[in-house]
Amino acid sequence: MSAKVLIADDSPLVLRMIEKMLEGAGLRVVTARDGIEAIEKAFVEDVSLVILDVTMPRMNGYQACRLLKSEPNTRGLPVVILTSRDQAGDRFWGLQTGADYYITKDAEPQKILELVKQILSREDASGRPRFSEAQRNSLDIVSRVNELLDRKLYEATILSEIGRVARSLVHFDETFTSVMSLVGRVVDFSVGAMAFVEQEDLDVVLMAQRPVAAPVMEEAKARLLEAIAQHRGGTPFARVQARLFAPRVGGPEETALHGFAAFPITTNARLTGLLALGGKAAGRIPADTDDFLGQVANQAWIVLENSRLFERIRNLSIRDSLTDLFNHRHSIEIVATEFDRVGRYEGGVSVLMLDVDHFKRINDEHGHQAGDVVLRDCARVMREQLRSVDAIGRYGGEEFLTVLPHTTYEEARATAERLRRAIEGHVFRAGAKELRVTVSVGVACYPSESVDSPATLIRQADQALYRAKQAGRNRVA
To answer: Which of 122, 197, 323, 448 could form a Cys-Cys staple with 379, CB 3.0–4.6 A?
Structure first.
């Protein structure tokens, strides 16, 4: 049996011309006058090739091609876009819809015939999925077309919403949770993650949409690392960092991962990221959804990677290079922000001014490198003792400014004392030498009768620090 070719064109003259040419070459021909009829005949006829005119009533060639490439039983059919226009935009849209070939109507008829023969000569239709006889008899073409159109609209909306997140949010944490929530509309996952793969570094951000047991989270991490190793060739990382966003909702804790799916992201043939989803639904993702999630993974990675880069650049402007704490300017901005918040909402804010005792002596006796070690270690020890909502900055030299939201004066003094004891008990190492360091801390709080501005609040903490120094150092005032 000779191959069967489907031609769709609303021009009877063009349709008849191509039909006669192909039949003269021994091919069987099926014709359609619009996109809807072309879809119907592609579904029910065993065609080996589809030729679609761009401009047709009811449904144009681009739309018909997009639907054919979306349906598992017809996505393998080669599609030729036939148009009277030869513009770059037409070629672009033809490729975007999944068309395999593009040719203009003003081409020589022999050229069209040669293209058809060339396609058919290398097409093997024997392994292509087909509708069964029962499927053909029960096929509601209009319902199928509507279903495909609805799905494409849904997919386009999801991708558009992910893009909108990039334009509306600044902070990475907010961007990540928003993007993963959109991914959750496609597949309901229990644990989701986006991995960012650099040359020797791996940064993984995880999100639990519902409470999960610790072994479930560990299994999700292990499966993710296995997927990365598989796509990366097993090259080890020098540094691996992971962060988790836990759910705020209640409900029963899930005790099994059930399913897992990974969607790699490559740039210039190199693995640069991976979207991972774990949960019951992740183990039974349909083929069409699986394909769409590949697009979602790429779009989500681009948005999140841009957010990471923006945050890195922003951090360079607000961070102290030695201690990685907030710098002087940004520390003052945080105090001002929290001061304004107290004016709008209930709750107070406290400020700690902390100074390393006898820091000049450390530099003079052990060198400036030892002084740098002390400052870096002090910053790390203080971060470990503070809450995630607290902010700490290097105010200048050996002075640190800590902002404690929703904290009373008594609570702030307790925090200051905890910091003082932690630093006093820490062993600082400068090469082979062990150093012992103490700090003095001043505490101030707002609302307070004597505080009427952010500058006054900082000044009161500084004055309290001076009193602690005058009273003998290594104490809280």
So the answer is: 323
